[in-house]
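Chapter summary example: a protein plus zinc ion.
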Amino acid sequence: MPGKEKATSGEVSIYKFYKMDNDKLSRGRRECPRCGKGVFMAEHKNRSTCGKCGFTEFKRSDDSKKEANKT
Ligand SMILES: [Zn+2]
């Protein structure tokens, strides 16, 4: 079946692309601590903001590992 073969090929490439894109997203973007998983924060020059709840997290160049929510 030529039609089936074509469909399978397309499905595979889409799946590969999705995996790559998803991996890139989870690495480069932060999830909102308020909204939880699935809600990513928008990246700005020196801060990240959540478009859903408005949470803002400022980035620190030398302290990025210790990002406890101190208020
Ligand atoms: Zn949020």
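Key point: Residues 31-61 form one domain.
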